[in-house]
Amino acid sequence: MEWKIVSESLRSYQKSEYVVKNDVVFVGRDDTNDVVLPSDYVSRHHMVILNSGGDYFVEDRDSSNGTFILLGGDWEKVHGKKKVEIPFVIRAARDFQLLVSNNRSSGSTVGKTLHGGADSKVLLSKVYSIDELRSDCVMMVLDLCDSTRVASKDDRLAFHLKNRLDRISELALARYRASFVKSTGDGFLATFDTAADALMAAREILQALLQRNLQSKNPPIHIRIGLHRGKAYVMDASTKDIHGNDVNIVFRIEGLRPEAFREGGRNVPEHDRILCSRAFLDDDSISAFRTSFAFCGRAVLKGLEEDHDIYRYFDQDSDTNH
Questions:
Q1: pLDDT, tens digit, for every residue of 177-224?
Q2: DSSP tag of 146
Q3: CA 100, CA 317: separation in Å to the nearest integer?
Q4: Is 138 in contact with 225 (CB distance < 8 Å)?
């Protein structure tokens, strides 16, 4: 069996082509795999593609972030082993898309799906091409701090704290017209049309939680918020999930620690903070708020090549500076 596999990074959009002459193809982050996908989100031994007596299968190897197959325009998560028909498109976590074919199918129009064009409608349905779907937006990532530690001691309390955070966040997201919201387990990813809307939503959530912490007898709720402006694109036509390098950037900003800064990081508390990128700060809609931002330093974002200037928002009207 001779497989032809074209992988494309959904962060850098770079492609790699593999020809493998085995019945079993191993795919993952580790260099020992037949197809190597260099990403922290891809497991070391992520999946297997195999030919068994002329039948074709994809098998997820208990990967951390899942294997998905494109069926009728929708992504379906693979649980264990799933029979497939060649050619097919699969996704490893949210970072790589693979077009799998053999000598008989490699010349078909399905080979054009990775970069769009008229024939890309064959498999991608609503998702036609990266360039058509990439658009500017303002992104917010919010994460609940110490949730694992709280849950290990009292999972009922952890559930209560998360519900309280959700209720506070939902009001702010609705008020400032979030256009997309996706749960991340202990928080969410959201997008807005303007940086001003994102900042107002972030500020309202943080203020409400600080006030709640002063009044409640329950343990405090601590959060981190990251803000960034960039390009994102829809990868999953059914859930409208968004992806792209700028999505990775905003997640990295949210989780920044002082040691990530070239000069040690100034004014970067562990929690109850709003950090943003220079791209966010350059948005014209927040020109009136720029004096409320302080430069923290130039930070190294894990897994990304370029350093980024990071700023912290200081609310002039309330005490968010701790």
A1: 888 888 888 889 999 989 999 999 999 999 999 999 999 888 889 999
A2: T
A3: 56
A4: no
